[in-house]
Amino acid sequence: MCTLAHVAAFLAGASAPALAAAPAAAPNVVFIFADDWGWGDLSGHGHPWIKTPRLDRLASEGIDFQQFNVLNPVCSPSRTAAMTGHFPSRYSIHQHFADPAQNQERGMPDWLDPKAPNLARLLKQAGYRTAHFGKWHLTNRNTHGAPDPKAYGFDEYAIFNGGAETESAGLHATPENAVKFIQANKARPFFVNVWLHESHLPHVPTKASLEKWSHLDEQKRVYAAVITDGDNAVGRVLDALKAAGVEQNTIVLFSSDNGPETTGADKGNDRPNAETGERSYGGYYSVGSSGGLRGEKRSLFEGGVRVPFIVRWPGRAPAGMKNDTTAFTAVDLLPTLCAAAGVALPADYRGDGENLLAAFTGQPVQRTRPVFWYWTGKAAEPDWWPRLAVRDGEWKLLLTAESQRAELYRLNADRAETKNVAKEQPAIVARLTRLALDWQATLPTKADPACISAADRAASATPRRAAKTAATEPAKKTAPDRAAAFARLDANHDGNLSLAEYLAGQKGANLEQRFKNFDQNGDGKLSREEFVGASVK
To answer: Which of 11, 314, 338, 433 would suit a FRET pair with 536, their CA atoms being 20 to 30 Å apart?
Structure first.
């Protein structure tokens, strides 16, 4: 069972058999979730050279929410919050799901508990047909025994970065699968996740999009092509809704799981894509924009957690509206979308979000509950040091792990978090610090054993496995040893190791494979966290 009492209570209420088919008037829901797509990576948000005509049109036909936050600055916990309506740390999911050995080092499970509350399951029980296409990452491709999406309430799926036993779909197949699903289910209410690869690493732009941006320099050209591919994917889904005759009764949401990726220092990490044979590009081309917000991916500042959020609901959401006052968050999606679908939450459900349906219809709505973030990954200056954050109303407080350092920002007047007013507002700092620490004290201290791959973790600990993989896995060194090695190898002192830097300072066989084993997020470079380990700051 889950580690949370209120989740158990939810299950008691959600264990009833599926209800009869929902009435035809129930709105369809299409949730398009991009990856590492920054707040500023839309031409409608003022980007100087990227063009996103389909997303700009979507915004002109609906509401552009400009104060939307995800609940973690990386993918797995961010997606957990969106689907469960709970802060991801309630499931000990603090970073992205990696291989089981690394999850264990981080005190994380190996997959999201399938018994947890889930938006898909609630809608399925109300008669919706449900599907998930694209990125999953609620487990990891190196994990054996992980549940597949059907265990979470999805009738159909075609995914990548699922469990080891789950067949992987191609990176560019996501919109095509969604189009087929929409056409096949146009006569009944449906809910479909369309979780795009763009603009995550590795960048695998199509030839057509690269040609479109041939007038840009190479670095900008690759990123603009990737964004164009994502924008085109959105367009194909929107066109499918219109062709199926369901456009007017469908809620379409577009967002991103976190802010833009760090730009790499060199371009020496390009390589062929194993799935498609196309050229694949590394982090040098990650020139995404936070739209002037402070921070980026892996940061609790707004650049890492404030992302695009566009909602189109014909006849209900006012066309062309910009909402810059409602502090909408990912945990609000479950109660809000259930309310839109006319689905009552179980009586004992205790979520972390609020039903903000009125905001979907253009009404002024203020979130009344505080928002919390907990981050255990990269910790560095200038923007990655916060480990804990809370927002209450217009105030946002960021703290170190022991709350010895605090910064306070008034977001309504300072969206870019440029003026720390902690010294001027000691009472607010004290109140929010207590609020954050009291919330943190409610979190589990270890992962749920039911969500751990016992086989993988046992295998990684056996001498037999160690002998078998000694030639391909990174040499076993202590964290202090690796910290010293990292400092020695980082020739340009940019806080990352390129393959060239790694090879120049190492001896032995299979060095490129060892580099890839360290490179957990596949971006072609090694962060200090990846090389040294999350426990060493």
So the answer is: 433
